[in-house]
Design a protein that fits this description.
Blueprint: E1 7-10, E2 16-17, E3 33-36, H1 43-46, E4 76-78, E5 85-89, H2 99-112, E6 117-121, H3 125-137, E7 140-146, H4 152-160, E8 164-168, H5 172-182, E9 188-190, H6 196-202, H7 204-213, E10 218-222, H8 227-241, E11 250-256, H9 261-267, H10 294-304, E12 307-311, H11 313-327, H12 333-348, E13 357-361, H13 369-372
Parallel strand pairs: 5-13, 6-7, 6-9, 7-8, 10-11, 10-13, 11-12
Antiparallel strand pairs: 1-2, 1-3, 4-5
Helix pairs in contact: 2-3, 2-6, 3-4, 6-8, 7-8, 8-10, 11-12
The structure holds pyridoxal-5'-phosphate and zinc ion (ZN).
Zinc ion binds at residues 10, 12-13, 15, 26, 28-29, 31.
Length: 389
C-alpha cells in the first residue's frame, strides 16, 4: 500500500475499501469507485505556490514524488463570441489535453506501487498523455487504439514518446475489452477511465476555475467516457465541503449526435443509457459507445441540475471554426463541442446572456491537423507572379 490516506468508496452501494491501486470496481456490487479523503487546506496559504495541479496537493492522494510535467494552470480566456463565456483552454497542457492532469496522478500511483509497465486503450489523447508520462517515469507503455481512427497528431505523440502501439480491429470499446483482459494478472497497470486516481487529478480544473473566476453559473463539458465531467463536479463539491463557497455551478455534458448514449437516454427520460456499437463523429476524442463512467456523470448532471445535450458534427466543426477565427483559440473537434453546446443552449433559451459560463475546451487543434485543415486554401505564387491579396 502506498496511498496511506483516504479510501475508495463505491458510488453504487457505498462500500468502503482501502486505497488499493489495483482495485477499480466494488468487490460487492462491481460499481465504480471514487477516492475520498479528509479535506484540509488553507486556500490563502497555497496561493503563492508555483506548481499547478500539485498546487492543490493536500486535496490529492498523498504521493511522495509525483511524476509531473507541471501540468494544469491552463488559461481562462473571455470569449469574444459570448461576453459572459469563459474558455478554460485545456489544450495548453503539456501534451495538449486535460488528460495530463489525471495522468500525473495515475502514473505516480503506478510508479509508487512498483509497476514496470502501463497499458491503456484510448481514442488518442489518453495515449499521448500516458506515453509522455510513462517516458518520464521510466515505465514501459502499451497503447491499444481503435484501427484507423486516431487523429494524426495524437499518433505522432505516442510514437515520439516511444510507446508500443497496437491497433485493434474494431472501435474503442473493443480495444478496452482487450486491455481489461490483459490487466487481470496485475503485471500491467491500467490507465483507463475506470481508474479513479486519474479523476482526482482532473478535479483540479474546478479548483483553477474557482481561483481564476469564482463559481460560474454553468460549466459545459464535452463528454466521451464521462470521467472528466464527473471529476470537475467532484472538485466543485469539495470546494463547498471546504466552506470556500456555497454556490455550485450547473453542469452540462455535451455529446456528439452519432455517439450520444448518455445524452439520448437523458433527453428521452430513460433511467440508463442504451450503449452504441458503432459510434460515429468527427470528434474522435468523444467517439465512445459505452461510456464507463456514465453513472458518475449521470449523478453529476442530476445533482447539479444541469442537462445533457447532443450537437451534430456540423455544429461541432462550425464551433471549432468560430473559436479559431473569433477567439483565436485552436481546438480539436471534441474540444469545440462545448462551444457548440453553448450556442445551442443560448438559442434554446436555457442559458441566458447574462449568466456566467465556463466552456471546457478539452484539446488542442494540432491534435487533429486533418480536421483543422478542412477549410484550407493556399494560393501558390510562381516566381515573378503578381500577388493579389
Ligand atoms: C478524453 C477527451 C474528452 C472526453 O473526456 P471523458 O472524460 O472521456 O468524457 C473530450 N475531449 C477531449 C479532447 C478528450 O481528449
Ligand atoms: Zn458497491
Amino acid at each position: 500500500m502506498i496511498i496511506d490516506d483516504g479510501e475508495l468508496r463505491c458510488i453504487n452501494c457505498g462500500s468502503r475499501f482501502e486505497p488499493d491501486p489495483y482495485l477499480f470496481n466494488c468487490k460487492k456490487c462491481n460499481g465504480l469507485l471514487e477516492y475520498n479523503k479528509d479535506l484540509h487546506i488553507n486556500w490563502s496559504e497555497i496561493a503563492s505556490r508555483t506548481t499547478r495541479v500539485w498546487k492543490y496537493r493536500e486535496l490529492l492522494p498523498r504521493i511522495e514524488n509525483p511524476i509531473s510535467l507541471d501540468e494544469g494552470g491552463t488559461p481562462m480566456i473571455r470569449s469574444n463570441i459570448f461576453k459572459n463565456a469563459f474558455i478554460k483552454f485545456e489544450g495548453a497542457n503539456p501534451t495538449g489535453s486535460f488528460k495530463d492532469r489525471g495522468m500525473t496522478v495515475a502514473i505516480s500511483v503506478a510508479k509508487e506501487s512498483g509497476a514496470k509497465s502501463v497499458i491503456v486503450a484510448s481514442t488518442g489523447n489518453t495515449a499521448s498523455s500516458a506515453a509522455a508520462y510513462a517516458a518520464r517515469a521510466g515505465l514501459n507503455c502499451y497503447i491499444f487504439l481503435p484501427m484507423n481512427s486516431v487523429a494524426k497528431g495524437k499518433l505522432a505523440q505516442v510514437a515520439l514518446h516511444g510507446a508500443k502501439i497496437f491497433e485493434i480491429e474494431g472501435n474503442f470499446d473493443d480495444a478496452l475489452k482487450i486491455v481489461m483482459e490483459l490487466t487481470k494478472e496485475k503485471k500491467l497497470y491500467p490507465l483507463n477511465s475506470f481508474n479513479p486516481w486519474r479523476l482526482e487529478g482532473q478535479k483540479t480544473i474546478s479548483f483553477e476555475i474557482f481561483d481564476q473566476l469564482g463559481i460560474p453559473d454553468w460549466v459545459i463539458v464535452p463528454v466521451g467516457n464521462a470521467g472528466n465531467i464527473s471529476a470537475i463536479w467532484k472538485g466543485f463539491k469539495e470546494l463547498k465541503q471546504l466552506g470556500l463557497t456555497d454556490k455550485l455551478p450547473k453542469m452540462i455534458g455535451v455529446q456528439a449526435e452519432g455517439s450520444a448514449p448518455i445524452a439520448n437516454a437523458w433527453l428521452s427520460n430513460q433511467s440508463s443509457p442504451k450503449f452504441i456499437d458503432s459510434p460515429i463523429t468527427v470528434a474522435t476524442a468523444i467517439r465512445i459507445g459505452k461510456p464507463v463512467n456514465w453513472p458518475k456523470a449521470w449523478n453529476t448532471v442530476k445533482e447539479s441540475k444541469g442537462t445533457f445535450l447532443t450537437v451534430s458534427d456540423e455544429e461541432i466543426l462550425e464551433a471549432q471554426k468560430l473559436l479559431a477565427r473569433i477567439d483565436g483559440i485552436g481546438s480539436e473537434p471534441a474540444g469545440a463541442a462545448s462551444m457548440a453546446g453553448l450556442r445551442k443552449l443560448i438559442d434554446q433559451g436555457l442559458i441566458k446572456n447574462d449568466e456566467k459560463v465556463v466552456l471546457i475546451v478539452t484539446g488542442h487543434a494540432l491534435k487533429d491537423p486533418e480536421s483543422a485543415m478542412q477549410d484550407f486554401n493556399i494560393t501558390k505564387i510562381r516566381k515573378d507572379e503578381k500577388i493579389i491579396l
